[in-house]
Amino acid sequence: PEAEKQADVQTFCFKVVDLLEKLAVSTNASFRLSALMLLMLTLNYSYALFQAMLGIFFSAKSAVLIEDVPFTVEDIRNDKTPPQNIHNLYNQVGINCFIAAAIYVVVGAVSLCQVRLNKRQEYMVT
Q1: DSSP assignment of 24-46, as one string?
Q2: Range of weakest confidence among 12-16, 19-23, 44-48, 70-74
């Protein structure tokens, strides 16, 4: 089911990009680039929000996400305080999600700066 959801989101993104390309056929290249960059910014920040939410749920040790925690049988057998090792793995995965969200935000901020820089250059006379 998760793979089907990802495929549906990917299909939706491709349809939106195709629609933007059809819309921008009669306009100049900078508009197409700006429209594509705005689409990417929207997706970028939605992915950042998704990663941040996952980080919160992993930090809260949600039982639904146990399949995504990378532990082995030996981790459980060799643990002196049984839930502590699993809790540490939950925390590590949560931290990784927060790091991914931060990277998405930084890349989005750089993209936003590029979009604004491109818009300024449109109005400059050379």
Answers
A1: GGGS-HHHHHHHHHHHHHHHHHH
A2: 19-23
Parse the chain into domains and list their residue ranges: 1-123
Residue 1 has pLDDT above 70, yes or no: no
pTM score, whole prediction: 0.66
State how far the Cα of 126 lies from the Cα of 117, in Å rounded to an integer. Answer: 15
CA dist 72 and 87 (Å) reads 14
Gap between the Cα atoms of 42 and 33, Å rounded: 14
d(CA 89, CA 58): 9
**Distance set, CA 103 to CA 49, 51, 100, 110 (Å):** 12, 10, 5, 11
Q: Which residue has the higher pLDDT, 117 or 27?
A: 117
